[in-house]
Every structure is written in structure tokens, then in C-alpha cells.
Fold:
Amino acid sequence: METAEGAAGPGGPDGPGLRFGCASFNQDSTSLALGTKIGYKLFSLTMVEKLDCIHESVETPDVYIVERLFSSSLVVVVSIAMPQRMNIYHFKKGTEICNYSYPNNILSVKLNRQRLVVCLEESIYIHNIKDMKLLKTLLNTPSNPSGLCALSINHSNSYLAYPGSATIGEIIVYDANNLNTVTMIPAHDSPVAALTFNASATNLASASERGTVIRVFSVPEGLRLFEFRRGMKRYVSIRSLSFSPDSQFLCASSNTETVHIFKMEQLGHSGEDEHATWTAYMGKMFSAASSYLPAHVSGMMSQDRAFATVHLLLSDQRNVCTLAMIQKLPRLLVATANGQLFIYNVDPVDGGECMLAHKHRLFGSDDDQGEGIESEGSEITGPAQACPSYAATAALPASGPITATLTGYSEDGGAKKGEVIPEHEFAAGPVCLDDENEFPPINWCRDGTGGGPGRRS
Structure:
């Protein structure tokens, strides 16, 4: 999922007021991971009024990347102190599974049940998540200083999307299962700033650095399906894009005070869908005019407006948003850079302004950094539940950290010991990574014999 940074990444400013470095939702938006100055926290998102901290680690300081694999106990962590090294933990057992080092700073990490993708500024590493074998290295990719990429979560279609150009908005769609390029999408005139797949990996949404138009393309064909205009008055920086679980809605947050929700529907094809309003009348006029207007003009006029919105009191704050079903109702979740989580109710029929259901302080009242990012007229607030200790979260006794510093580069390197599920069995369906059936096995690189990208001397 998308990540909100509370401070600059590796090498960036680290002032005394830094509380946390990132926030990310897991692949199905059932948990929230928070990278902090002293470690990381994991929160469960099963209830609106109660935010349970299911794990807290203080083993690694200044975490700026933390990604959890679905609801499993596999967590990937990257720290500002060692920005070229990725650590993979089994947080329930209190053990480190392994760590990998790369030639340059790690800018983002994406996970699904088959692949683990590490994005550097000019290269991408694709690992087989079951044994961390390095399957492919995409070298000399266009300069990507933000580490922008998206990995689909569908177990049968593992697509990777990343910028195909540093100057225009081209998107490369890569098949991470079969390790080949699928298509190149000419998505925008300016460089791409945000990317996300829907849950079924049939749609890809993108926004450019201008941030005025959001487009949705079919996958793998790359055909343009929808265009949504989030504003015409000013350029904005889209910070986060996320589809709803049923792919019917798409939310977008930016550096402005408004979060937009768009609906995936074609308007104007049925009389029942068009009401006798001024908007519908103008829409018909623009549709008729599009046959003789220049392409770029008619395209702009046919944009759909936001189906629903959320207005925050302050703008220019780092945030990440997602759409999820919580307690059987659709919700919009926004985690902000000052350590707060906002949960809004979404009306899937009428849309409009979303109502704030609850606000959680991710650090508790003593650590709160201010109440600035707050929905207007709302006083609903509550601290997150206290996190259990590191020892209390261990489901099984830990034998101490299992460290495997993989220094030898090998294109076909990987763990050489430990139970490995055959590829055809693994690809047949999603793998359960919970409790006693953890996967990858805890001992798959216990002795550090695996190969992998080495640290450049």
C-alpha cells in the first residue's frame, strides 16, 4: 500500500521533533504499520472506535519503511541508520528471518504472497517471497527518486508497475510472476507521481506530478477506462491512491485539505442515471461537442467529478489513505504525518461529504503532536490502545535473532535450506502465513547461506 512519510527518507532531515518516519496500510487494509523514531508499531483495523496495537518493537530506531504482509507475522523494516539494508522479521516469534543489503538506499518495498519487490532509485529487485531467492534485477530503470512503484496483490496475477520515464508520464507494467514486460502505458504528459492496482489486478490507477487528472487503465491491455479530475485551479501533489476492496471506488489524497473519492461508473449511458440537473445538461453539451473539439480539450471536459469528499482543516501534510470495510460498512481511512488516524463513514449510494466516525492518536495523549489535521466540526477523539511489550507478542519462545547478512550477489541466489513449497503449489492459490503454518519457514536462512544482492564496495 501507499506510505505517508513523517520525515524525509534516508539522508533526510531528522530533527528533534521527529515522532515517526512512515505509515502504511497492509495489502487488504486490515492493519496499519507505523515506523517510529524508536522502532515500529502494528495496529489492527477491525473496529472503528477501538484501535488495538498488536505489536510494538523497539529493536530498530528511525524506521522509514515498514510493510506487513497481509495479516501474517512477516514484517519488512528499513531504518535511516542502515538505508541500504532490508530486515525481515517474524514479529510473533520475536525473530529476524533474514536481511538483505543493496547497492544503494532502499526507497520502497512492496509485498504480495508471491513476490517481494525492492525499489532503488535506478534499479528494482524482485524476490520470490517463499525463500527470498532473487529472481530478477531490473537495472538502469529511469530515475525514480521517490521509489514509486505498485505491486498487485492478486495471487494469480502479480503485476508490477513503475515509471517508464523520468520526464513524461509513461508507466511500465511488468509481470513479476513470469518475469517479462507486459506493456508500456502513455498515461500522462508529466512524470507519474502515484500508482495503485485494484485487488483483482485488472485496473491500474495513476496520477502525474501535476495532480489534476487521475486515470484508470485496464490490465494487462493498458486501455484507458476512466478519467477523474480532482481540480482545475492548481497543481497538487497526489500523495496516495487506493481502490476499494470491490474496485467500485478510488480514493486520492494530496497536499491539499481535500480527500477525493471517485466512483468507477460510466455516466450518461442510461436515462435513469442522468437526472434533470444543470450538471447533466452541461454533460450532454460537452459530450456532443467532443466530436469536433481538439482531443485535449474534449478529454478535459468529459472528466467526472468526485463522488464523495473529506475536508481536513490543514493542508500540506503527509498522509496516506485507503478504503476498507470495517464492521461491514465502507470506510475511508486517512493516516496523517502528525500521528493520527481518521476513520470516515462513506455513503456508497449518495456520496457527498463523508462524516468523521472516529479519530485515533497513534501515540496517545502524551505524545500527540497537535490537533491540526481534524475534520471540521468534529470532537470525536481517542488514543490508541496501549501496545503490548515485545515479549508479550511472541507466540512461541524465541531463540534469539536469526541473522543472515547476504553479501554475495547471485542472480539465482536464495535460501538453500528449509522447507520450500514447490512453485506450482504456491501459484495455485494464496498461502496462509498465520500462526503455526508460517511461510516462509522460520529456518529458511538460519545459517546465512542464501545468496542475494551484495553491498557495493
